């Protein structure tokens, strides 16, 4: 309906042009309007907060790379938590 044999139909062309117009209006509004930017920033902050909570609950920060802890003065060097070097995956034999 939007394309035939790899070529867009008239309706497909119209949808593509509408999408370009919508994208251009969004960019212009984003660049020009301070309230619009603040609204988008607030939405992004909410979603990032939700992702941060999910990482804390589900992965306990083991989903990413962790740097080794600095050695304590006068004590032996400390090692990162088990499995940190494998992104949180601990090698265990299959049962």
TrEMBL record:
Q: Name one Pfam family in it.
A: DDE_Tnp_Tn3
Q: Which domain of life is it from?
A: Bacteria
This protein is called Tn3 transposase DDE domain-containing protein
Q: Where is this region: Disordered?
A: 62-95
Composition-biased stretches, type Low complexity, lie in 75-88
Q: Which GO terms describe its molecular function?
A: transposase activity
Q: Name one GO biological process term.
A: DNA transposition
Record-annotated Tn3 transposase DDE domain positions:
1-65
Q: Which InterPro entries match?
A: Tn3_Tnp_DDE_dom
